[in-house]
DNA sequence: TTGATATTGATAACCATTATCATATTTAAT
DNA sequence: ATTAAATATGATAATGGTTATCAATATCAA
């Protein structure tokens, strides 16, 4: 668990469970894939890891200490992400939900692009 | 292809390929699961079907003739969805992308709640 | 020390999706 | 209408990320 969290923190951005597992193994750690999944799962439940869905069918994870509601702008090349303020978008979703009479409305924003460093 | 499209239209909202397949079989149609996937795939490429990712790991599809960029507010109970105007959110994402120097930025909004009909 | 409890790693199972392939259907040319 | 090539279809196997299982190991409290 601590090992997985460390590795994820040092990763800096979003990474898949499989990739994280490979990197840990390559580093010589004795760890199982199931443990990586389990750790990421409980870390996300405890709020220190955020989850997103990459372009493909892999779930990707990133360490994020901030427990308050926010979103990320993520690089599709390297996985780097920046926390972004979303007040404006929050108000928009709330007003849309009200307009159509939907309740218990939640949302997921997946915003991806190419970060400054990855631009040739 | 036409059969799949019809079924999806009559469905009204979002539904998974597996569910659509089951409903077609229950209706007595002679169709294969692969054909359902293939049809939904090409329909989405031709722009008459939109794709989203449900809470679980299933991809869900909905007939949507509107080829312009827009988003949906979807009911997590019955799959019903309403097309929503997102100009405000579009401007927000564009400004965020500019602020952090990200280019080629695209986004996916998944906004789900409980529709008026499904509220007890 | 000892016994109960929780964690771990290896591996099998799961399941949505895709690839394969033989058959059936459509299309175009003769 | 015949025939041959091209395309679409359904059945089924394969893929791959994720989860379940389980025996072994570590942790903890008497
Ligand atoms: Mn938000
Ligand atoms: Mn948009
Ligand atoms: Zn980058
Ligand atoms: Zn509903």
From TrEMBL, chains A, B:
Positions that bind Zn(2+): 75, 78, 115, 118
Top-level taxon: Bacteria
Cofactor note: Binds 1 zinc ion per subunit. Binds 1 Mn(2+) or Fe(2+) ion per subunit.
GO cellular component: a single term: cytosol
Cofactor(s) for this UniProt protein: Zn(2+); Mn(2+); Fe(2+)
Residues reported in the UniProt entry to bind Fe cation: 69, 90, 107
A matching Pfam family: FUR
Keywords: Cytoplasm, DNA-binding, Iron, Metal-binding, Repressor, Transcription, Transcription regulation, Zinc
Keyword Ribosomal protein: no
BP GO annotations: negative regulation of DNA-templated transcription; regulation of secondary metabolite biosynthetic process
GO MF assignments: DNA-binding transcription factor activity; transcription cis-regulatory region binding; zinc ion binding
InterPro entries cross-referenced by the UniProt entry: FUR (IPR002481), Fur_C (IPR043135), WH-like_DNA-bd_sf (IPR036388), WH_DNA-bd_sf (IPR036390)
Subcellular location: Cytoplasm
Entry's family note: Belongs to the Fur family.
Subunit structure, as described in the record: Homodimer.
The protein's name in its UniProt record: Fur family transcriptional regulator, ferric uptake regulator
Organism, as annotated: Ferrithrix thermotolerans DSM 19514
């Amino acid at each position: 668990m601590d090992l997985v969290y460390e590795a994820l923190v040092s990763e800096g951005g979003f990474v898949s469970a499989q990739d994280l597992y490979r990197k840990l193994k390559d580093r010589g750690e004795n760890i199982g894939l199931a443990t990586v999944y389990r750790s990421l799962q409980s870390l996300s439940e405890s709020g220190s890891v955020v989850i997103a869905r990459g372009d493909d069918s892999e779930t990707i994870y990133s360490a994020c200490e901030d427990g308050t509601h926010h979103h990320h702008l993520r690089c599709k090349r390297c996985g780097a992400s920046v926390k972004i303020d979303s007040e404006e978008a929050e108000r928009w979703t709330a007003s849309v939900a009200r307009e159509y009479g939907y309740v218990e409305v939640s949302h997921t924003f997946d915003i991806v692009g190419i970060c400054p460093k990855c631009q040739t």
